[in-house]
Specification:
Elements: H1 4-30, H2 34-54, H3 56-64, H4 69-86, H5 93-123, E1 128-130, H6 145-148, H7 151-156, H8 159-172, H9 176-202, H10 209-223, E2 227-231, H11 239-242, H12 245-250, E3 255-259, E4 275-277, E5 294-297, H13 305-308, E6 314-317, E7 338-341, H14 344-352, E8 362-364, E9 385-389, H15 408-416, E10 423-426, H16 437-460, H17 468-487, H18 495-501, H19 505-508, H20 511-524, E11 532-533, H21 541-545, E12 550-553, H22 557-562, E13 569-572, H23 579-585, H24 587-590, E14 594-596, H25 603-611, H26 619-630, H27 637-650
Helix pairs in contact: 1-2, 1-4, 2-3, 2-4, 2-8, 5-9, 8-9, 15-16, 17-20
Amino acid sequence: MNSPGRGRWTTAGVTAALVLSCPATMIAALWPNAWVFALTAAIGYAAEPPASRHVADLVERLSQVSAGITLRFAIREVALILLLIRLDQTGTASSVILVTGLLGLHVVRGIYSIPTLRVAKRRRLPLVTRGIDLSELAIPDAPHRFFTVHPTRTMLHLDVPVVAGTLVGLAAGTSWPGLAGLAIAYALGLAGVAHMARHALRNRHLGNDQRAFDVVNQRLAELEPEVALYFSGSRESAYQVNMWLSTLDDLDRRTLIILRERAIVPLLGPTRTPVVCVPKTLDIVRLDLSGLRFALYPANVGNNLHLLRVPGIRSAFINHGDSDKPASFNPFAKAYDEVWVAGPAGRERYLSMPTGVRDEDIVEVGRPQLTSIRVGAATPDPMFTVLYAPTWEGWSDDLLHSSVATMGPKIVRALLDHTPPVRLLYKPHPLTGTRDARATEAHHEIVAMIEQANAARVAGGTWTVAAERARERGRLEGLTRRLEAHAGDGAVGDEAQISRDTGRSALAGDGQEVEDAWHESYWQAVDWWRHRVITGPRPHVHDCFNRADLLITDISSVAGDFIVSGKPFAVTNVGGLGATEFRRLFPTAATAAYLITPDCAELPKILAEAAGPGPDVMAERRRELKNHLLGPDEPDSVTRFAAAVDALIARDPARAGEGRYVA
């Protein structure tokens, strides 16, 4: 990860190049000065590719005021013509050919867009799938990404050889380099047109949405799924569905995953369960779910209504965590047939608040996805390790749940400066900064502090930098590419091709083996004494639990999950409430936790108790709270979850024509 300081300089440089290069090129043409023109044009060309990554907002605003990429390229082309006029280079036949040919490139670009748009439209299937055989659709390989991702930008660069050749010709006193550049541009452009025309012919049989649904419905009829995991949400919320994949795979039932957003599909973790993504609301009615008995919902979103209204499919809200946040006692939960909670604490939340959820509709199933957390095991690294895993700002301004903006830098500074030294793992919530820019600023500050602390440890020479880590980092990069290919990130092929190629791999692939190897390599790729900034879906926070001796978190389900490990944890008291009042308001997170007030004065004592040889004064509280939060150890949560599925399906009456919308 680049440092925030370096990132700001990059952003500033790209912004300046994008905004100033065009007027500077025009000034150089009117001057006229061919060398300055060459320099400013080169800067403008170089700024375009990184602009979409570093200054996407600026690119969007420029497009909104009709100063998009097409205009920027046109300005450079007009400036080249003005340069020729100012240098008295337009009186020859070669210059007429050059200028006419330069303008004619726009015709080539327009022709190129016709097959390109046709291919894109044909290949955008109404569904995205994993683990479903689509061979009957005969989906061809996709064109290379070079031709289809940002096709406008790709074809606009046809003027580069013309501009470069013309400038070389001006320096050499001849027009031939410019004409050669023009010939190269037309050869490349027409080759691109021919290539995409061939793909348009190969894909002409696609584009029949009903045919795609017929094939998928036929596969669903063969699979006969009984239980579906239904999810809708943003890219940042993909973790909410991923946490349930292994649980769904382990069910002794025929299962299906139904998604609503295309962007979520490549973010799914390894699963043996077939996946179907139906983005359009009206297309849900075309999906044959007549054999589906039961749907699980990990999030409360409006799109849930599209399946909830299908007759005959029972529903259970399983949430994506159990905590004292309002999401764990939302009144919307009464829309489901049942609400599944981890243990007695979850039941009490719903019954103590005006949610409308009845006691008989609440089922305690434990947290089956916590089986990967090692209980009471010593961490594998020699240095005492603290995991700081704060939550995000939440949807309401009056709930001070996140510590990032107000306490984050203080907590991190105290940990980095602590004696004896500790290692810090910083894993912020993926939605951090979504609603509050102060959280984003604090996050960047924390990242910079960690990078500086690591640099100081290297410079100090106290710890050895292991040479074998470089080899492990190479292995990690290879495993990352394999995971991305397995998930279908678009690096090879488009959605249609990936849906085709993963028709069987989701059921019989090596995704889980690669995932396990990736996690092992991730921790081996960096020296054990280095602090880590951990973002993205991997490693999962549960994997971080197994590397931590102490957790510091906020009011969130992270505390409730960590309690399985039996290790100590601390919770931030962002509002500075009295300890008794804070524990009364947030019993799940705070009852068995050390509390950290806004000045962080308690942190040295907490570290001393957690890392010291003395008795674990909070151990008994954690054991009691664990039973209250997660229920009994026997039967285990996997068994209880499966039993809840069986029980709800058993409640299902005789079915006839169900699983489809009715008029």
